[in-house]
Specification:
Layout: H1 4-7, H2 18-22, E1 28-32, E2 38-42, H3 52-55, E3 70-76, H4 79-84, H5 90-100, E4 104-110, E5 116-121, H6 143-152, E6 157-162, H7 163-173, E7 180-185, H8 193-203, E8 211-218, E9 227-232, E10 236-241, H9 246-252, E11 275-279, H10 283-286, E12 297-301, H11 304-310, E13 315-319, H12 322-325, H13 342-349, H14 355-363, H15 367-379
Parallel strand pairs: 4-6, 6-7, 7-11
Antiparallel strand pairs: 1-2, 3-12, 3-13, 4-5, 8-9, 9-10, 11-12
The protein binds flavin-adenine dinucleotide.
């Protein structure tokens, strides 16, 4: 029986698209569902039941756990790069290292409509496109195939993405290429691209094309008090601390994430990556002298190859305690808990243009909600 993931449980599909890219008959397409997430659809008339799609599925075949060999706190030596990055700017250091060797860097950039797509670059001039987190699920496109083709030509390839995207890449490639640097970022979940599109439409009154700049992690109020900034050519449209912005509150309260994010099988060391990067939120309690509130990254080096690469990066780093470093970072929870109103929220999303009011309404948890949740908990 072919294609278990594709047709059944949405929680078991992270949307990596490895199945689509491996299909020898091109009979799988990625289609948007009513929540705005991409899922594979098969043209059964073309399917030859080779089962390759199931074989490359990282949800059906999760990787076993890797304990980090080294755990570090780190910052890019270039202050400007650090300030324009979400955490300590380690992605840029890895990308510069790869490009300096004539390699190729895969990462996520905005498209013409301010959606997010995975792409590749081969020059430092284009690096800014990937710098900075874009807090929505990105479309992988054909990038696993493209990465494979560069790897087979012998080029050094840096592929960065969420843990599920890296697990998908590794299952797709099958071979452990020595010229691949696989880097996942710590992730507690990715929000709906449909919500993002509707949010932009609301704040721009339909004129999304007028947007000039978006930063999800602007640090003018500090790394901890990061802000969402959206500018048009003429004016500043949004300048909100994350805790006061409706879109960011929905994301950080786990209201708007992809279903698979609530049962992720790739997080916490299951991505099969060489290096994992994220925010080192606990740094002020472990090594306060290293914390400049401009961004400190947590680096988990998972493989010997990762150690060799890390040694060559232009960064300032120090060893830090892994268990203590996990504090304050939701990506280390065993799972992200689905917001109580998620289903209700998405049922209404499709039919409203006032997503800001919808978010504010659905984020509120009443005493009754808590009671129902606990009754449900005790019954099961
Ligand atoms: C949806 C999402 C959730 C996250 N959750 C956490 C978390 O819970 N805890 C934590 O410590 N860190 C989390 N991160 C990672 C964190 O925000 C930083 O991206 C990471 O620490 C790298 O920062 P940097 O300063 O080294 O480089 P930056 O320049 O800030 O990193 C940019 C890197 O992120 C990639 N990227 C950006 N947006 C996307 C996207 N939508 N899809 C795929 N790749 C993308 C770029 O390609 C590039 O590789 C999350 C990131 C995303 C996109």
């Amino acid at each position: 029986m072919a294609v278990v993931i594709v047709t059944k449980n949405k929680k078991k599909c992270n949307g990596c698209g490895a199945c689509k890219q491996i299909c020898p008959r091109q009979c799988i397409s990625m289609e948007e569902d009513s929540e705005g997430f991409l899922y594979p659809q098969i043209d059964n008339k073309k399917c030859i039941h080779c089962n390759l799609c199931d074989k490359v599925c990282s949800e059906l075949h999760p990787f076993s756990i890797q304990e980090p060999l080294i755990c570090l706190a780190a910052k890019n030596n270039d202050t400007k790069i650090k300030l324009n990055s979400s955490s300590g700017g380690i992605f840029s250091a890895l990308a510069e290292f790869t490009l300096s060797k004539g390699g190729i860097v895969f990462g996520a950039r905005f498209d013409d409509n301010w959606g997010v797509v995975m792409d590749y670059i081969d020059t430092k001039d284009d690096l800014w496109k990937f710098r900075g987190s874009k807090y929505l699920k990105c479309d992988i496109g054909q990038t696993y195939l493209q990465a494979k083709s560069f790897l087979e030509k012998g080029l050094l390839v840096l592929y960065t993405g969420s843990s599920c995207q890296i697990a998908g890449l590794k299952r797709f490639l099958k071979i452990d290429y020595t010229n691949l640097i696989a880097v996942d970022y710590l992730c507690h979940g990715a929000p709906s691209p449909l919500l993002w599109k509707k949010y932009l439409n609301q704040i721009m009154h339909g004129n999304i094309s007028k947007i000039k700049e978006i930063s999800f992690r602007n640090k003018k109020r500090g790394w901890r008090n990061f802000s969402l900034i959206i500018n048009s050519e003429q004016e500043n449209i949004i300048d909100d601390i994350f805790s006061e912005n409706a879109y960011m509150k929905a994301f950080l309260s786990d209201l708007s994430l992809r279903p698979s994010c609530y049962s992720c099988s790739a997080r916490n060391g299951h991505a099969s990556s060489d290096i994992t990067i994220g925010d080192h939120w606990a740094i002020n309690t472990i090594n306060p002298e290293f914390d400049d509130d401009m961004g400190v990254s947590l680096i988990l080096v998972n493989t010997i190859k990762g150690i060799e690469i890390f040694k060559q990066l232009n960064i300032n780093s120090l060893k830090t305690d892994f268990q203590l470093s996990k504090k304050w970072n939701g990506a280390f929870y065993p799972q992200t808990e689905e917001h109580l109103h998620r289903k209700r929220f998405f049922k209404q999303l499709l039919n409203t243009n006032d997503v800001i009011s919808l978010i504010e309404k659905e984020l509120k948890i009443s005493f009754w909600d808590h009671l129902v949740k606990h009754l449900f908990f005790f019954k099961h």
